[in-house]
Fold:
Amino acid sequence: MQVVHGSRVEETVRVHKHREGEFRFRRLLTGEPGTPGNFVLEMVTTTHDFFSPRHRHNFDQFRYQLEGDFDFDRNGKMKPGVLGYFPEGTAYGPQTSADHSLTLVLQFGGASGSGYMAAEQIEKGTEALKKHGYFEKGIFHRHDGEEGKKNIDGYQAIWELANGKPMVYPKPRYHDPIMMYPENYEWVADARDAGVWTKRTGAFGELGTECGFLRLEPGARHRAEGRRIYAVLGGTCSLAGQASDKYSVLLCEAGEHADIVATGETTMLVLTLPVFASATQQRMAAE
Structure:
């Protein structure tokens, strides 16, 4: 179990290397590198110079737009309050940003068991590839005479270098990313906890991946449990005994639990990560 207060996390600024443009982020939570369930949760700020080509991944993403707009071209535009699910194997984009865009981004290993690369692997691979080519607008271009595909998605190039084998994309379960408009869902009274309301906006795949929202009336108490991330979007509360701050988050891993107690009306985003329980799934991920 972890509690992190986003407003107190130092922001890192860098010119994006395997995409295009300035990229600022606060890294809030990370999983266990090398496992199929690895993940990273970040608050990401982009500006008008950000660009990413149409591409796909071998991992899943949730994106919740906090400020500004983020444009995914044919897949739609994310405005504040929109929640998006970007499934592994499904192409999306190209992506462009407004002058100021702030997004809560969760990237995590999906049901295929392909996992998610740790940030250190991505950075190391990016630097190593510069000896063999260059990145431009999200594509890695190999120098003449270098072995491998001449032009390839930047992330795929890094993944293949880190893993020493070609990337095999999972077969897509969905034709497009799914954009959700939470304001059009109704709140449902929680059957267990008085003064607690829920919005379940989506459930995806066979390993329990879900997303939704939680609202607590002042004084209400809710038991957080399961492999879930709870992100405070508004109001004040206590997370496992710690007073919340702007953009505070709580992580519960499988088998853990913690109390959320509202000191004022509180709204939270709740993201449920997949659980890789069986030996077969672990074995598939290692192959």
Summary: The longest helix spans residues 119-129.
